[in-house]
Design goal:
Elements: H1 4-12, H2 23-39, H3 45-73
Pfam families: YqgQ-like (PF06014)
InterPro entries: YqgQ-like (IPR009256), YqgQ-like_sf (IPR023164)
Amino acid sequence: MRTYYDVQQLLRQFGILIYMGNRLYDIEMSRIELKQVHESGLISTQEYLQAELVLRQEHSRELEYQEKMRKRNG
């Protein structure tokens, strides 16, 4: 698992589709749902940790991007 899209596809296997209209919120909700899927025993700890790492990286990138856009737009 390497991308946010991969994590979305993993969640989709369990009928979880997330769209909140803000990518940062989508990533945060994905982390919550991923944790629930793991705690339910539906994915392995390794899958969970890989997906969690991807989500942390994407969250960080999105925060940087939004901050950059805020500075650019005043």
